[in-house]
Amino acid sequence: MKIHVFAMKSLHASALTGAVIAHLLLPAAAQDATADGPQDDGATVLQDIVVNGGSGGVIQADGYVGKSSATGAKTDTPFIETPQSISSVTEQQLKDRNPQTLLDTLAYTPGTRVGAYGFDPRFDSFTVRGFDVTYSGVFRDNLRQPGAGSSLFKTEPYGLEGVSILRGPSSALYGSSGAGGLFNLITKRPTEDPYHELQLQYGTEQRYQGQFDFSGPVNDQDPFYYRVTGLYRDADTEQISVPDDRIYIAPAFMWKPDEDTKLTILGEYSRTKTGGTAAYYNDPLTGEVTDYFAGNPAFNDSIQNQGRIGYEFEHRLNDTFVFRQNARFSTLNIDADWAFAYAPNAVDPSLIDRSAGTFDERLNVFTVDNQIEAEFDTGELDHTLLTGLDFTRLQWRSLDGRGVSPPLDTNNPDAGAPVPHIDYQTRTVQDQWQVGTYVQDQIRYHAWTLTVGGRYDWVWTDTDNTNLLADTTDTISQKDNEFSGRVGLSYETDFGLAPYISYSTAFSPNAGINQETGQPFKPTLSEQEEIGVKYLLPNSNTLITAALFNIDQKNSLYYEVVNLPTGPANIQVQRGQIRSRGLELEANTSLDNGLSLVASYTYTQAKIQEGATGTVGNYVSSVPKHMASLWANYTFQESSPVYGLGIGVGARYLGKSYTSDRNTAQNGSRVLFDAAISYDFAALDTKYEGLSLQVNATNLFDRREPVCSAGFCYRDQGRAVIGSLRYTW
């Protein structure tokens, strides 16, 4: 689903649409399991990181280099055999860069645009290949993690073992997903070897954090293993009245009675406190973003509680068949107050009028995926045949109220003012069911691999919109069904080069209601042609990939100012078609001399084929044509006089992009620098084994330029420096 403007930045979705952005609405007045993996002869030998998985998103990695994943095919498949662009953020990358958000985690992956909405700790909002993936492209352990309105699950990077990224339409296996692809977040799982970690962090903006990660066998006799990961954070941010506080606990349990059977239970609870809005005031007279906080410090609370419990079961029936069932129930509740400054006061120009609102949302999601994998031969053809049936039920409820806040006083902009009580005026309840069945065959003939798959989905959506003041309810029912497919061919040479070609489609039903028509949105459809090459260098732990792609998406969603009976409002409308074409280059390496590196370059040309008046033929807002990134980490070896010291440096280049779909102004290009330094105290004496110190900095030179998306402007997040003292045993 392509959302041009603010769906991912929403304070709150309108109760009528389920996705309208509250703080951008025009107001009424103005509107660690490890194993030594096999190595090629002569290759550098590093420790493989194996994320337990089956179909849960297994990543096998050597340092920074992902080698295989279950994300690309729902079966553990080497990257060079996957006929689609795929990459990973490995556990070692997470340790070296110490990301604090999902956006930090993905900042160095090709095609991924983070930071289009500047500083905002509320949501992890990003695009890939020019398309929003916030609502439809985030998966957890190979199961859908959908969102609706402001109900978006927050991700704690410390709870991840890695991220596996499949770019491009991928509904042939996964059902509802967008044109940009999917990001599979892989939860930390129990390890068979004992592992214990304690860590203390302190950073800028009074950031205090303590965290722990314990794992291993329950005892020496039984096949039971556990893991429990948690943290507590008390932190301010660069914006007044916008904290970044969190409590997080994630227990996990694994039963493995033999090599043919495994049951893993994964749980999580978190409570996050931040602000109802984090926006800066945009001056309507100059069109520029100011340094004034647009909200009201006395009316700017947002508390989100979320939890999940699920399991992954795998049993090998015989030498041919394996059965898997993965299931999860997730729930979140977000309760927030917000205010938004929108225009100078007509009487006193030193005052800025503010609207206000309050909302309460709840999202419950249950999803289950049943699979049977069969491995067999037909003559000279080797088959890996996967069949499956999955089911998702989403229940979303939104209560929304609107009012006014005392104006912002520019002579005392940090002062808060009491807001009169605001009653809820609307309620939206949405119930969505999705059932999909799929089949895929990976057919190998010598060096050739043909991947063919197809899926059919049925989706039922019922929506009740209630006007609480008038005590009236409108009920709308919608049924959608669609076939999705993928076919791809790859060839692996003896020297590690693997060219491929593929075609794939995606299908994404849209939650919410079109306020302009009063009808549900049609599903967003997309298709992609991709050709590329992957090169796993012989005798070197290095993977280089290149991909050319063309994606067409129709029934796109836009945000547009529309005159409604209640006045002008910035709402979602559906009348678009997007075409995105581009090139992606990526290189990952981890060498035995202590150097690890990730580098990428992306060229993206995302244009509006059909859309709002004045936008046809233009480029999609805030999607740079050129993006590039480089992160390198070097650990000094034992022969060095500074043995134990590690240094990391990174640079992220963002080219120019347009500030709105009308292409009347541009965001300037910029380079943001990151850095890290670490020291392992075991280099001094073995009695300090397991003790290390690390300092990470993002946006090192504190570059805070304006960045505008769909005509609204933000500021880049400023410099953050975090020191971590870690002890492992």
- Structural class assignment: mainly beta
C-alpha Rg (nearest Å): 25 Å
Tally of DSSP helical segments = 3
| Terminal-residue CA separation | 45 Å
Low-confidence stretches: 1-56
Q: In percent, how much strand structure appears in the residues? A: over 45%
Largest sheet descriptor? 22 strands, antiparallel, barrel
Strand element count: 43
Work out the helicity level: under 10%
Give average pLDDT, whole number: 90
Apparent shape: globular
Describe the protein:
This protein is mostly beta strands and 729 residues long. Helices cover 2% and strands 58% of the residues. A hairpin with a 2-residue loop joins strand 41 and strand 42 (712-715). The two termini are 45 Å apart. Mean pLDDT is 90; it is low at 1-56.
Characteristics of this structure?
five-stranded antiparallel sheet; disordered N terminus; 729 residues
